[in-house]
Amino acid sequence: MRNINSQFTVAAKEEFARNAVAWLIAYAKAKGHTLVTHEVFNPQSKKKILIPVVCEEFEVRYVNTLKC
After folding, report:
1. DSSP codes, 20-65
2. Distance between CA atoms of 60 and 36, rounded to whole angstroms?
3. How far is it, in rounded angstroms, from Cα 26 to Cα 22?
4. 4 burial class (0-12, 13-18, 19+ CB within 10 angstroms)?
5. pLDDT value, residue 66
6. Backbone angles phi, psi at 46, to 5 degrees
7. What pLDDT score does 68 carry?
8. Rama region for 32: left / alpha / beta (φ>0; ψ in -120 to 50; rest)
9. What is the rounded average pLDDT of the residues 61-65?
10. What confidence score (pLDDT) does residue 26 get?
């Protein structure tokens, strides 16, 4: 795993910590579920921590609602 923590702004990290997305990703990982999101994988994002980026980092399956 690469260290994605350093690429994000402090504001992005604070926003991610305030919402339930981290819990949803952790639950999907623990239960072997697939997360469904409208977000698109963008590893260059710095101002927002995107669900697909975290899912890729922690090997959680996800699908994009527009590509289902």
Report:
1. SHHHHHHHHHHHT--EEES----TT--SS--HHHHHHHTT--EEEG
2. 11
3. 6
4. middle
5. 82
6. -125, -30
7. 58
8. left
9. 94
10. 96
